[in-house]
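Hi R.,

Here's the input for the calcium ion complex you asked about:
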Amino acid sequence: MKFDNKNIIILSLLFIMVIGCLNQDEIPQKNDGTMDIVLQTNFDIDSLNTKQYWTSLPVEIFTYNYNDYHYVDSTDSNGIVRFENIPFAEYNININSEIVVDYGTFLDTMPIVASGVYNLNNMTDSVSTIEILSGGSNKGLKINEIYTAGPPNNFFFFYDQYFELYNSSDEVKYLDGMIFCRMWTSILEVTSIFQFPGIPLTGTEYPVEPGEFVVLAQDAYNYKDEIFNGKASIDLTVADWEFVNSLDFGDWDNPDVPNLECIEVGEHREFMVGLTMDILILADGSDVNYIDGVDSMSVVDGVEYASSATHTKDLESYVDRGFGGVGQQKYSGQSLERKVAGFDTGNSTIDFEIISAPTIGYQHE
Ligand SMILES: [Ca+2]
Ligand SMILES: [Ca+2]
Ligand SMILES: [Ca+2]
Ligand SMILES: [Ca+2]
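And here is the predicted structure with calcium ion in place:
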């Protein structure tokens, strides 16, 4: 790869010139000039730092500095994409795509993402590198959507919470005996523990097909008409499962929807989680002694979410390296979903996005 020195000089001059006419807080104006962005996409295919370039990968850039500046172009055979003569501004970079990896004996389709900001302060670099992350290498049952914030309302209603699981693997998975837990700050501290019926690890009563979604409702109840005159809340009678604590006498039990039962001795509470901050764990059920937490080897998926960007990360990083949901509003009807069904890089900061409305049993566009 060869850089053109002339371009670097022109870019640097342009940078100095444009910065020269702007106050620090002022957003760049359309007539401030143009710029080029050259991005080298890198993909570490085997997590061993083996770089691979991907051709024809759509890369999107957009800026909040103006209304309509949004560009999509594709990488060349060196994994490079160029945006030339675009208005001077700070651009966000977004890749949300799929790649097909040829393993010789089979092809594997993997969802990938990359995101970043092309910072004006770094404009003297002629080529920026953007790392592509694959969310498909660790397949299995995933916590795909977390709908907890409550529908738009001003009387603190949030009882329409649900969680969506997704089987991103190519094989049938079984829910038999699995546990779904709310944790305190670590996998060592269980706050609530509910279990699917069946025998953990070996049971085959409750299959989840590859690509299938499973909806776990706080209550499999139709909140659509009763509470909000058909406008704001949702119908959870479509759920595949509901959480029931038989010691909570007020807990709704829909006879048509099977139950995850509370297994904590003496616990009277329903399964209910934080609206915009909490930790959820799906585990295989081989360890149900909750006193000392959930055995790390039994954890199938775990997600931390928090609306505050300054939230201190709690959950062990080998379960989740980040946290999703920054900026999510309580009582907004917003939901938190993986960018692509089952997409999991092991970092919820990257894997999840806030969506404006829940998607019960399907993936948002
Ligand atoms: Ca319930
Ligand atoms: Ca039920
Ligand atoms: Ca334990
Ligand atoms: Ca969904």
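One thing worth noting: DSSP finds three helices and 21 strands in the chain.

Cheers,
M.
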